[in-house]
Amino acid sequence: MGLSLSIVDHTHSFLPALHKKCTSKLQEICAEAKHVSLTLDIWCDRRMRSYFGVTLHTIIDDKYKTFLLSFKRLEGKHTSDKLAAEFD
Fold first, then answer.
1. Confidence category of residue 37, pLDDT binned at 50, 70, 90
2. Considering the entire predicted model, what is its pTM?
3. Does the structure show a pLDDT above 60 at 12?
4. What values do phi and psi take at 41, rounded to 5?
5. Considering 5, 6, 33, 62, which has the largest number of Cβ atoms within 10 A of its Cβ?
6. Cα 33 from Cα 53, distance rounded (Å)
């Protein structure tokens, strides 16, 4: 059984709007912050599938803030060239 066309249409308009809103909010946060730090992390789950994550860290109004910028499956070996390509 598939999704009704109205749900699919709503999702196609909702997700791009949500992405734009989140991107705009992150730009505001970065503009406010004196310093930001990015961390890159790679790990494997129990089935040995690799994942790559990028997080942004900052302090705003004396509160530590962390935001997940990217999370995706990483195929192949974890070479420096591969990681640079994924991060780029």
1. very high
2. 0.69
3. yes
4. -140, 140
5. 33
6. 22
Task: List the beta strands (DSSP E) in the chain.
Answer: 36-44, 50-60, 63-74
- The per-residue b/e assignment along 35-65, b for 16 or more CB within 10 angstroms, e otherwise, is eeeeeeeeeeeeeeeeebebebebeeeeeee
Cβ atoms within 10 Å of 29's Cβ, excluding its own: 15
| Of 75, 33, 32, nearest in space to 50 by CA | 75
Q: What is the largest CA-CA distance in the chain?
A: 51
| 63-86 residue pLDDT tens | 999 999 989 898 877 777 877 777
